[in-house]
Amino acid sequence: MMTKGVRLAFFVFSLVLLLGVSYLTTGSLIPMGKSDIIWFSMGGLMILLGSFLVEYFYTSPGDVLVNTSALALSIFLNGLFPTGWHWQSIVIGSAILFLLATLSILLGEPYEEKNATLQYVARIFMKVSTKIGRSTVLFSIAFLLAVNTVYGFEKSSIPLYGFWVLVTLLRTFPKEILDVLKLGQPSGTPLLGRVLFHHAPKVLFGEVLTEKERLSFGDVVIISNDYPSMDDGQLGLIIEIISLRNRRLVRIYRLDDREDQSTPAKFFKIKNPSETVSDRLMGNLIWENRDKIVGLLDKGSMIGLLKVEVLNHVELETGVLVEAKVGDTNVIYQVTNATIWAESIIEGNKVDYKLAEAQQLGVWDSKNLSFNSYGWLPEENSLIFKTLTEPITHAKPEKMVHIVGKIPKSSFPVCIDLQKLVVLHTAILGTTGSGKTYLALELIEELIKRNVKVICVDRAGEYRRRLRDEALDNIFEIETTDQVTNFLQSDKLLGLYEFAACQTDVDVANSVATIMETVSRWCEDNHGVLDFNEAKLCVVLEEAHNLIPEYMFTTKDTSDIVNRVSRDIFQCRKLGIGVVLVTQRTANVSKSILTQCNTIFSFSVYDNTSLDLLANYMGSHFTTVFSNLKKRQIVLVGSASLIDRPVILELTEIKRPLRELTAGEEESGANTQEEDLPF
Ligand SMILES: Nc1ncnc2c1ncn2[C@@H]1O[C@H](COP(=O)(O)OP(=O)(O)OP(=O)(O)O)[C@@H](O)[C@H]1O
Ligand SMILES: [Mg+2]
User: Fold this and answer.
1) 671 lines ligand 1 (CB under 6 A)
2) Collapsing DSSP states into helix, strand and coil, what is residue 125?
């Protein structure tokens, strides 16, 4: 392969040769005889133009149209058509090639959905027409035929045949000789392919024209019309390689912001870009973060919810963070749906591609350990990265703030405001064994550390066995509901009310009602109505579906009591009292109480009641999240979360050795586990 300069030199040299040969054989530089015109202009000149200038890289169906029509017209105009079957065959052949090239152009239009067989046929037509219809083949036939017709194999025609042989040799000048003479392309920039179309100002699709070159994500190309020097053309990054039937397409992202908006037709591979074009790549953020590119912003994105076209070599997971640059701001999003399959049409072929949905968290605010929402959307087709921002984690949370976990596969902490957690009520939902009790215990321990009194209503006796030693020292045994006031007056912070499994629904609900009434009265007497959300006391209802059942699942008497509890809970916010409901049966727990819970921690859930309820809190695009949550992962939503949108997080691992039951506890059957209903 030669550089532009060498090709031009060869062209001029061959042209001079052609004129010389013409002078030798016809006595004039430009011959005028009818048959001579054909070999001179149609043969010689067109071969030179095609060989070195117009079709040096490849022949397009458009070139075939020009070549065939020029040749056929010239045969007609010079009156050669009637003179023999060979000229007639050439004209007919040209007409067929013209037709094939036209059909391949019409059938192969990109962007339009077309029948796949038609596409295949178009491809064959294109291959046949461009192989035979290229100027070197077509005009060589015309040239040799014309010379043969006019001069035959005589001595005088030797310069003409010689000219043809020389030009053919020059065109295929061996690479080795070019290398020795240093006339070839700059080393490391082989022609890779041609540009098919621009998809967006920065994104273009190209077709790879060589089968030899191995390509991978992150290769750098120069987009240019000719063999470029390292300062020419536009730099592009190959971000995707797409196999399309027997073709290889690449998606190229333009790396530089050069003003040049032209559309060069070819691209060349740069070997060792970090050495050869290091000065052009230095400081280029896209190049430096190329390993973090996950996709491009797709149409249909909204400020709060992005649709990302995921590159085919990238695998995203629910919960991970991605980031986009909006101007100079790094905005962070969390993947809520990692794989949605979609179809697009490239070059008339259907191509499957992956979309992901990512919800905006916002711009990281390291001071408040939270995200601030951002009001702008990244541009369509802009690059989306894995997180580029690193959180500064040494910021100290405020007194009532607790870090419950972190965002999956990142070090961004997720914090809760314990004050709001209590006074605005909270629910912990999830299937059996998902970790609800562990989370409740952690919240309880954090509350008592901050001097908020807690009463746990627990039938299984599990709390006593799992609490850490520090909390255990703070326990006040509430044996009957009459002792609630004693606990409130004591300096202990954790009141444990365990009731026997044999109690009826009415008795259990009555106990809860009494507890709520007692604490409300006590708080009102001691603190009065509070103007601000100051947490004074929290009532944890473990296995809440047993304590405050939904009316459909219980008797009228129990249901009346539960309604009373619901009213009390509604009233107690201003007294600084809150409840934390823990349940694996969303359907069975009182909805009038559950819907008062402003903050929800939800592990994976599958039942429709839970999913419907959660969709109301976080929007239906979150529904798929719950079936994709991994061990220890939850969705947190509500005022207690410092992040003002639903967020997927991974809870902190906590070790809780199981304390042995005492003989008395075993006897009373306090640890009886019941069968769980399947949902
Ligand atoms: N944060 C955590 N760190 C470490 N292990 C945990 C954590 N949360 C849960 N586990 C593990 O998962 C098990 C089940 O947790 P837990 O008892 O809290 O689930 P649950 O949802 O309350 O179940 P159930 O519905 O049966 O009451 C625990 O015994 C513990 O081994
Ligand atoms: Mg539990």
Assistant:
1) no
2) helix
Q: What is the mean pLDDT of the chain?
A: 86
> Of the ligands numbered here, which is closest to the C-alpha atom of 458?
2
**Burial class for 121, CB neighbours closer than 10 Å (0-12, 13-18, 19+):** middle
C-alpha 321 to ligand 2 mean position (Å):
30
Residue 672 pLDDT exceeds 60: no
Residue-wise pLDDT for 637-663, tens only, equals: 999 999 999 999 999 998 887 776 654
Give me ligand 1 centre to Cα 654, in Å: 10
From the CA of 130, how far away is ligand 2's center (Å)? 73
Residue 99 lies in a domain: yes
Q: What is the DSSP letter of 549?
A: B
Q: What is the pLDDT of residue 476?
A: 93
Residue 432 alpha carbon, nearest atom of ligand 1: 25
SS3 541: strand
HEC string of 260-294 equals CCCCCCEEEEECCHHHHCHHHHCCCHHHHCHHHEE
Distance CA 116, CA 121 (A): 9
How far is it, in rounded angstroms, from Cα 66 to Cα 300? 43
Does residue 434 line the site of ligand 1, with CB under 6 A?
yes
How far is it, in rounded angstroms, from Cα 59 to Cα 135? 8
The answer to whether residues 130 and 209 belong to one domain is no
423 and 565 both lie in a single domain = yes
> What's the structural domain count of the chain?
4
Range(s) of the domain holding residue 443: 413-657
- Among 248, 277, 306, the domain boundary falls at 277
* Amino acid occupying residue 585: R
Each residue's pLDDT tens digit, 298-350: 988 999 999 999 998 999 999 999 999 998 899 999 999 998 888 887 777 78
Percent of the chain exceeding pLDDT 90 equals 43
Of the three residues 145, 162, 181, the one that is the final residue of a domain is 181
How many residues comprise the chain?
679
The reported pLDDT for the residue numbered 287 is: 92
- The ligand whose atoms approach the alpha carbon of 439 most closely is 1
Any atom of ligand 1 within 6 Å of the Cβ of 435: yes
